[in-house]
Design goal:
Elements: H1 2-17, E1 22-27, E2 32-35, H2 37-43, H3 65-78, E3 81-89, E4 95-107, E5 110-120, H4 122-136, H5 146-163, E6 166-174, H6 177-203, E7 209-214, E8 217-225, H7 229-248, E9 251-253, E10 256-258, E11 262-269, H8 276-292, E12 298-300, H9 303-324, E13 328-337, E14 342-353, E15 357-359, H10 365-370, H11 374-393, E16 402-406, H12 409-413, H13 417-428, E17 435-439, H14 448-460, E18 464-470, H15 477-482, E19 487-490, H16 492-496, H17 502-517, E20 521-524, H18 530-539, E21 543-545, E22 553-554
Parallel strand pairs: 11-12, 14-16, 16-17, 17-18, 18-19, 19-20, 20-21
Antiparallel strand pairs: 1-2, 1-5, 3-4, 4-5, 6-8, 6-11, 7-8, 9-10, 13-14, 13-21, 13-22, 14-15
Helix pairs in contact: 6-7, 7-9, 11-13, 13-14
The structure holds ligand C2E and magnesium ion (MG) (2 copies).
The site of ligand C2E has 22 residues, from strand 14, strand 16 and strand 18.
Length: about 575
């Protein structure tokens, strides 16, 4: 019986020696006892001796071993043929996909060994991937095709409903592509399309999708945009502008330089679930509008988004002109002591817009910050304030007045903030001891050390620092402990109801106590009534600002001496 088995095994082995399948047998203790040449080649290379008597499980990729052992155990129990797909390791450490088939050799009801065949699936996997590529990717540009885009879009719309963030699709269509195709041939056209695909991919973030719908139509799908629609629209606008500029750069087609522009139609999707078909239709309609004005532009489907981004673009251009043409002015609001005498002022920025009238900071500071424009604006404010201090210093009736200016977080965080501030003060020749800089906690977020260095540098020259809007931000006691400050400014939201809301009263009272015990002066802003002032005074506050003592107004409206 044993001899017959051996003989059949030998024949089996012979049969498999040159077969494209690996064949091996395992002894009862799971060591490789026989293996054909193909099997040797698959697992280790050339030398059969190196592989005999080794444990086959060691060639199975570690993450697949559990499945492998389960299959072997099953085969030993029932004597049936079993198979599974798993990864095997080559001698060099690389892995390949394989199908294992195994049958247990049964002797007297127990397993005396195992026959295993290995089929290399590498080629099949490659084919499968190739097929997937053909089905989901565009063969010319290698970008996702319409099918894959629709699939991802479906996914993205559901995600947005859940997260409350926005996504956007932008349909991008080349202007005048047909002319190129007709005059320079399809090769030139194909070349351009491939290059456009590559350029688009560079313009977006790694998790965004760039797809080709066909012809000269591409789509980018953006995800993770702001939850606030106008903010999301301006993010889309920024990316679209980058795309337009990138696609406008010259292309080299053969020896020729070629220039092309594109039009973009965009639509947002967000909290409300929209169908994928509708979204593409909307973006297409927007694209049609972009083409209608001559191309090389972005158009939104949503009219209100279009208005918002247009308004911002206009405001942006206006801001630049406004600074060149001296349209900004400082208004001054008095700050008084407990006896009602003026001790200083806060400078508050206003924009005399040529068509929209007088604008308050809330209407333009956020955009100025976003565009980095706040730096020039802040320097303008500082310079104007210094000039005012110099003017006051000439008159004994005003020479003692201090001036507070507001510094935005963006300015404060700028590397050269301290040096530039000192430069301007010296240039104008103002007394730094009369200048107070107001900043908010957001300015120091994340980098207290650096903030301390800046504040120390400026305080060494006599400038003073006030923490504005205190109480509504993080109101971190650690900041208070570490920052070299001079003043706390209680936010006016606590003052407003200080007489009617016991919680506001308690908070205002505590801030005053806290400030005093830290050796800081405390000023209340937004004081509108005598009763509010009296209450704050009773709590220990000694400095006030608000409509009760004067609204902000241009310097021309001031009488010659604030005491009069
Ligand atoms: P802020 O520094 O907290 O300024 C106080 C704001 O409260 C001013 O508004 C002022 O007009 C208003 N206010 C003063 N007293 C009262 C009052 O009794 N009742 C009420 N309801 N309001 C009062 P404004 O001028 O619109 O300024 C708003 C914010 O814009 C300022 O808040 C400040 O953060 C910022 N800002 C103003 N000027 C500048 C500037 O030159 N640069 C920067 N970066 N920001 C500025
Ligand atoms: Mg302020
Ligand atoms: Mg304030």
């Amino acid at each position: 019986m044993q001899a017959a088995l051996e003989e059949s095994r030998d024949r089996y082995l012979d049969l498999y020696t040159f077969a494209p399948i690996g064949y091996l047998t395992l002894s009862a203790d799971a060591l490789i006892s026989e293996i054909n040449l193909t099997g040797v080649g698959m697992l280790i290379g050339q030398d059969r001796q190196k592989i005999l008597q080794r444990r086959f499980a060691l060639f199975v990729r570690p993450e697949d071993r559990k499945r492998y052992f389960r299959m072997i155990a099953q085969a030993k129990r029932d004597g049936e043929r079993h198979s599974c797909d798993l990864g095997l390791r080559h001698g060099d450490g690389s892995t390949f996909h394989a199908q294992l088939d195994c049958v247990s050799e049964m002797a007297g009801g127990t397993s005396s060994g195992m026959r295993i065949t290995i089929t290399d699936l590498t080629e099949r996997k490659r084919m499968e991937m190739e097929i997937e590529k053909l089905a989901f990717y565009d063969s010319l540009t290698r970008l996702p095709n319409r099918r894959l885009l629709l699939d991802r879009l479906q996914h993205a719309t559901l995600t947005c409903v859940r997260t409350g963030l926005h996504g956007a699709i932008l349909i991008i269509d080349l202007d005048d592509f047909k002319t190129l195709n007709d005059t320079q041939g399809h090769d030139a056209g194909d070349h351009l399309l491939r290059e456009v695909g590559q350029r688009l991919t560079i313009c977006v973030r790694a998790f965004d999708t760039v797809a080709r719908l066909g012809g000269d139509e591409f789509v980018t799908m953006l995800e993770g945009l702001s939850g606030e629609p106008t903010e999301a629209a301006s993010q889309v606008k920024a990316i679209a502008e980058k795309i337009l500029a990138t696609l406008n750069a010259p292309y080299l087609l053969g020896a020729e330089e070629y220039r092309s522009s594109a039009s973009i139609g965009a639509t947002l999707f967000g909290k409300e679930l929209a169908s994928v078909k509708d979204l593409l239709k909307r973006a297409d309609l927007a694209l049609y509008r972009a083409k209608a004005v001559g191309g090389d532009v972005l158009r939104f489907f949503e009219p209100e988004m279009q208005t918002a981004v247009t308004a911002r673009a206009i405001l942006d251009a206006d801001l630049r002109r406004g600074l060149q043409e001296d349209q900004f002015v400082l208004y001054y609001q008095p700050q008084v002591n407990h006896e009602g005498q003026q001790i200083g002022s806060e400078a508050l920025l206003r924009w005399k817009h040529p068509t929209r009238g007088l604008l308050s900071p809330a209407e333009f500071i956020p955009l100025a910050e976003e565009k980095g424009f706040i730096l020039s604006l802040g320097q303008w404010v500082l310079k104007a304030a210094c000039l005012q201090l110099v003017a006051w210093s000439a008159d004994p009736g005003t020479a003692y007045l201090t001036l507070s200016i507001n510094v935005s977080a963006y300015e404060f965080r700028h590397l050269t903030f301290a040096t530039r501030t000192l430069e301007i003060i010296d240039q104008v020749g103002a007394d730094p001891r009369k200048l107070m800089l107001e900043f908010t906690e957001s300015s120091i977020l994340g980098n207290v050390e650096e903030a301390i260095v800046k504040i120390d540098t400026l305080r060494a020259r006599g400038l003073r620092f006030s923490l504005d809007d205190f109480g509504i931000g993080y109101s971190s006691l650690t900041y208070l402990k570490n920052l070299p400050l001079d003043q706390l400014k209680i936010d006016r939201s606590f003052i407003r109801n200080v007489l009617t809301n016991p919680k506001d009263a308690a908070i205002a009272g505590s801030i005053i106590t806290l400030g005093k015990s830290l050796g800081l002066s405390v000023i209340s802003e937004g004081v509108e009534t005598v009763e509010q002032r009296d209450f704050l005074f009773a709590q220990g506050c000694r400095e006030f600002q608000g409509f009760l003592f004067g609204e902000s107004s241009p310097i021309e409206n001031w009488s010659s001496s604030p005491d009069s």
